[in-house]
Design brief:
Its EC number is 2.3.1.61. This protein is an alpha+beta fold. The chain is built from eleven helices and 19 strands. Among the domains are: about 80 residues, OB fold (Dihydrolipoamide Acetyltransferase, E2P); about 200 residues, Chloramphenicol Acetyltransferase. The protein is about 30% helix and about 25% strand.
């Protein structure tokens, strides 16, 4: 029986999507609930799975094509027996002609053992598929294999030479040659660009700075890290302290926790804090709902959960919808100071940065202290400079004396 393969029903905030990757090709066997195609929207990647055991009968929308909510993108034949892998004959032929290691290496870059998603990820990260050991069926290189290879290369510093910029071809060129590669902007990247430009053009954005002595937080973590891990099964990080400090400060300064809707100012009686997460596809901001009711361990666990989802492209639109305030941490990449851009319709965003030891005057003496610059970008239409400065000072004071967070002083 032939059935239609349809794009998922998009939320109201999403108008259309793009076919990102067909994981199965026409004639290829599929198991029930097996991933067959990814649909990329300007917020998340939505997955479409096989409705039953069978084969892909026809592909109506190719990779890169635009699709609307619920639109037919292909046809599926339920109960039909298909090939376990496409281009079987081609693979056998290559084996018989060249049963050597070189032949195997050449075959590794073909459709027979490199999935479309894996090939796309390998191209984006300038990875040679021949260098990756496939763990999929019949030695197929999966998307996860490529991702693990990229992460291992980063952690081990495998490449001593500087890598080319993302999207640039990694080739040996002669002097005088100037290679270029044109890559279409993904929907997520285009959406990020549009939102950031709109934020700068529509808001009266201003940034105020301060610095915080991280020694008290670092000492607290050192003292209780072992018992915290034993009790909660997760490490105590810095982000949970910043989230709790921001939550308490938002209660004191409601304008910083507000948003602008046309000519209306919307004050929120709750704190939903977005935490910016960097992924291969771009920056996403999942939201910690009701952060006031969350403990440090709850925050840490949720951040790890969101980070894993973001890495695997599994974040749902509900995970990133709303939010009354955002925290972004450029310090993990080495940023010393920056001016973060607002996340509309929010009116403020807090930027964390690199912890750096600096000579500080303490009680008339010079001491070396681990310091971090903080930046608060805010919409001056909604927030006065006095409120912005006092809000940032409140966060600084709570971080330098964590007992303030518990005592609300």
């Amino acid at each position: 029986m032939s059935t239609e393969i349809k794009a998922p029903v998009f939320p109201e905030s999403v108008a259309e999507g793009t076919v990102a990757t067909w994981h199965k090709q026409p004639g290829e066997a599929c198991a029930r609930d097996e991933l067959i195609v990814d649909i990329e929207t300007d917020k998340v990647v939505l997955e479409v799975v096989a409705p039953a055991d069978g084969v892909i009968e026809e592909v109506l929308k190719n990779e890169g094509d635009t699709v609307e909510s619920g639109e037919i993108i292909g046809r599926f034949k339920e109960g039909a027996a298909g090939e376990s892998k496409p281009a079987e004959g081609k693979k056998d032929e290559s084996k018989s002609e060249a049963p050597t290691e070189e032949g195997k290496s050449e075959a590794a870059s073909g459709d027979a053992i490199l999935s479309p998603a894996a090939r796309k990820l390998a191209e984006e990260n300038n990875v040679d598929p021949n260098a990756i050991k496939g763990t999929g069926k019949d030695g197929r290189v999966t998307k996860e294999d490529v991702q693990n290879h990229v992460e291992n290369a980063k952690s081990s510093g495998a490449s001593a030479a500087p890598k080319p910029a993302a999207g640039m071809p990694e080739v040996n060129v002669s002097a005088g040659e100037r290679p270029e590669k044109r890559v279409p902007m993904t929907r997520l990247r285009a959406s990020i660009a549009k939102r950031l430009v709109n934020a700068q053009q529509s808001a009266a954005m201003l940034t105020t700075f301060n610095e915080v002595n991280m020694a008290p937080i670092m000492e607290l973590r050192k003292q209780y890290q072992e018992s915290f891990v034993k009790r909660h099964g997760i490490k105590l990080g810095f982000m949970s302290f910043f989230t709790k400090a921001a939550t308490e400060a938002l209660k004191r300064f409601p304008a910083v926790n507000a948003s602008i809707d046309g000519n209306d100012m919307v004050y929120h009686g709750y704190q939903d804090i977005g935490v910016a997460v960097s992924t291969d596809r771009g920056l996403v901001v999942p939201v910690l709902r009701d952060s006031d009711a969350m403990g440090l361990a709850d925050i840490e666990k949720k951040i790890v959960e969101y980070g894993t989802k973001a890495k695997e492209g599994k974040l749902a639109i509900e995970d990133m919808t709303g939010g009354t305030f955002t925290i972004t941490n450029g310090g993990i990449f080495g940023s010393l100071i920056s001016t973060p851009i607002l996340n509309p319709p929010q009116t403020a965003i807090l930027g964390m940065h690199k912890i750096q030891e600096r000579p500080m005057a303490v009680n008339g003496k010079v001491e070396i202290q681990p310091m971090m610059y903080l930046a608060l970008s805010y919409d001056h239409r909604m927030i006065d400079g006095k409120e912005a400065v006092q809000f940032l000072v409140a966060i600084k004071e709570m971080l330098e004396d964590p007992a303030r967070i518990l005592l609300d002083v």
